[in-house]
Write a structure and sequence with these properties.
The complex is a heterodimer of chains A (354) and B (262). In chain A, helix 2 packs parallel to helix 4 and helix 3 (108-121) packs across helix 4. Chain A has nine helices and 21 strands. Chain A has helices spanning 43-51, 93-103, 108-121, 137-149, 167-184, 195-201, 219-224, 229-234, 322-326, and strands at 5-14, 17-27, 32-36, 58-63, 66-67, 78-81, 155-159, 187-192, 204-209, 212-217, 239-241, 245-247, 251-254, 257-260, 270-273, 278-279, 288-299, 304-309, 315-320, 333-338, 343-346. In chain A, strand 18 (304-309) and strand 19 (315-320) form a beta hairpin. In chain B, helix 3 packs across helix 6, helix 3 packs across helix 10 (220-229) and helix 5 crosses helix 6 (135-158). The longest helix of chain B is centred in the N-terminal third of the chain and has 34 residues, at 62-95. Classes of the chains: A alpha+beta (354), B mainly alpha (262). Chains A and B meet through strand 6 and helix 2 of A and helix 7 and helix 8 of B.
Chain lengths: 354, 262
């Protein structure tokens, strides 16, 4: 049964570092939730607190309303896929997968049947007798998943499980997580520093920074209304521009060009330009024309990145088809269209952005 | 195969290796050769009169045999207790955070105390509190000697046990005991066996501490030392030869076993 997690003002200090600073969060039963953040943001500490590997200094953690703060890891209905997978090197694939059931003293026949089912679930049917040390990276991932899922956990924790895999495998395993989430219906909590992973997989996600949660919401909400400049950059909005002036009527002026914006006019606000709403072609009624100067064109393989500047030197990057980019040169003017709600006012973030 | 060295260097390396091996192995082999000489005076036997006579005489050397038994008993006790205690010490070391290096140094320290001093100190204390010298007093002295080594050997093998394996076992529901028996123990078993062997040999060899702590029955090194001083009887060469042969046999068995496993 999927479990709802309630985290209540949880704090954790390691020496001088406040890894978690009064974090409160609700994760709904059965959702795919991602904790996104750079290293040292506290995301792993939060995951460990949910798993029972680390006890918070203060605050409570509730599973379906039951306080589990003091329950050790081996008595929580939670299973984890560790960052280094942590497959037992002295056990075969089947022994690894069946370990949790052996601890529960499940009978031999039931054990064998469930191990076979778990291996089939992750597409490793027939791999039971293999040596885990001789498997490929992707197969090891699947063994670790099967070992956790065989326990039918209410919550599955995924601690940066895709780091260290090559791009193709990463994408393949990403799809696998989505599929297994739908199959098992368990609450999945993923920790990652990769915003692509977070955006493709999560129902909802939280961006963490220096022990605090900066924003919680669906992936779309992060683009429609990023909470601040840090969050905007973390989810992939690179262009954060400083306006000359902000009209209360929903417009800003950047280097003499007037652009419509959404979002609250906070003092010192920056303008986040959504890359998906900045286009070389006129897309829809209400698009605003913007004229910039090309600073640099970088070949990226399947497309080229055009670095274009406002008159005051602030830069945005626009992807363009390679052939089209080839007909342009640095110094040329570039006519762009800013789509509806393509520019968003966001609060500045005093903490330096990575 | 890649060769990194020039021929001159290679020749030098081989020369050093061969000279080193000869220096190490010639004396014990010389001892074995003497033991095969039927004459009373130690010397290399001529090939025509090789004899096992001293080996047969060994059977009637009650003093030596009793000392050998005593040594084996002390060594076995030392090996078992040292390995057991070191295992606990190493498990403690694994759990510690701040006091880690202090704990390490504390366990290792007896290694650096000279044997004569340790033996004397123990002997004085045992006399003071009225403990009679016996197998157990020698074993106590040998424990101080062997335990630091056993500890280091076990600690080394334990460093191969990743923390995440223990976390994973806990994650899958295993309590402390199951984590130890299912994960730690199988992975450090080779280390435990090494520690046992190491402690056994260290004890078998030990003289200084045993000298102060033996009861009525001498251990082998002390008995042999006494025999040498009172005019060498060739049977002690035979005993040396026999122990040497057993050592080689043991190493041979280990090598054969590893070859079979591979």
């Amino acid at each position: 049964m999927a479990i709802a997690i309630h985290i209540e003002t949880v704090s954790r200090r390691f020496g001088d570092v406040l890894a978690l600073d009064r974090v409160s969060l609700d994760i709904e039963a059965g959702e795919f939730f991602t904790l996104l953040g750079s290293s040292g943001s506290g995301k792993s500490t939060l995951l460990k607190s949910i798993g029972g590997f680390d006890r918070p200094d203060s605050g409570r953690i509730l599973f379906n309303g039951v306080d589990v703060t003091d329950h050790p890891a081996n008595r929580r209905p939670v299973n984890t896929v560790f960052q280094d997978l942590a497959l037992f090197p002295h056990m075969s694939v089947a022994q690894n997968v069946g370990y949790g059931l052996r601890v529960q003293r499940v009978g031999k026949a039931a054990l064998e049947r469930r191990v076979a089912e778990a291996l089939a679930l992750v597409d490793l049917a027939g791999f039971g007798e293999r040596d885990v040390n001789l498997l490929s990276g992707g197969q090891r991932q699947r063994v670790a998943l099967a070992r956790a899922l065989i326990m039918e956990p209410g919550v599955l924790l995924l601690d940066e499980p895709l780091t260290g895999l090559d791009e193709r495998l990463r994408e393949q395993m990403r799809d696998e997580f989505g599929r297994l989430h739908r199959r098992t219906g368990a609450t999945f909590v993923l920790v990652t520093h990769n915003h692509d992973e977070a955006l493709t997989l999560s129902g909802r996600m939280a961006v963490m920074h220096q022990g605090r949660i900066e924003q919680v919401g669906t992936p779309r909400q992060f683009f429609d209304a990023p909470a601040n400049a840090f969050v905007a950059r973390f989810v992939g909005i690179e262009a954060l521009l400083t306006p000359n002036s902000v009209d209360p009527g929903g417009h800003v002026v950047i280097a003499g060009q007037r652009l419509p914006v959404t979002g609250p006019a906070i003092p010192g606000a920056l303008v986040a330009i959504r890359p998906d709403r900045l286009s070389l072609t006129h897309m829809a009624e209400g698009d605003t024309p913007v004229t910039l100067t090309i600073a640099e064109i970088k070949f990226r393989g399947l497309h080229s990145d055009i670095h274009a500047r406002f008159a005051d030197g602030q830069e945005v990057i626009v992807p363009a088809p390679v052939d089209m980019a080839a007909s342009l040169a640095p110094g040329d003017p570039l006519h762009l269209w800013l789509g509806q709600k393509g520019a968003i006012l966001v609060a500045p973030h005093t903490i330096p952005v990575p | 195969m890649t060769r990194f060295e020039g021929s001159a260097n290679l020749a030098l390396i081989w020369t050093i290796a061969v000279v080193g091996l000869v220096v190490i192995y010639a004396p014990p082999f010389y001892l074995v050769a003497i033991s095969l000489n039927p004459a009373l005076q130690p010397g290399l036997p001529s090939l025509s009169d090789l004899s096992l006579i001293w080996y047969f005489k060994l059977a009637s050397e009650r003093g030596l045999l009793a000392a050998l038994t005593q040594s084996a008993l002390v060594a076995a006790l030392t090996a078992l207790i040292a390995t057991g205690l070191s295992l606990l010490a190493a498990l403690g070391h694994q759990e510690l955070r701040q006091g880690r290096s202090a704990w390490f140094m504390t366990v290792i320290l007896p290694m650096f105390v000279p044997g004569v001093i340790q033996g004397l100190a123990l002997s004085v204390i045992f006399t003071r509190i009225g403990i009679k010298p016996s197998v157990l007093t020698v074993t106590a002295g040998h424990l101080l000697w062997a335990m630091p080594f056993a500890f280091i050997v076990i600690l080394t093998s334990m460093s191969g046990v990743r923390r995440s394996w223990l976390l994973a076992a806990a994650d899958l529901g295993a309590g402390w005991g199951r984590r130890f028996f299912d994960v730690t123990l199988p992975l450090i078993l080779p280390g435990l066996i090494s520690a046992l062997l190491f402690a056994f040999l260290l004890s078998l060899n030990e003289f200084a501490r045993a000298f102060y702590l033996v009861g009525r029955q001498n251990t082998l090194p002390i008995e042999m030392f006494g025999k040498m001083n009172s005019g060498a009887n060739p049977t002690i060469y035979a005993l040396s030869g026999a122990i040497f042969a057993v050592s080689i046999l043991c190493v041979g068995l280990i090598v054969a076993r590893q070859a079979r496993l591979r």
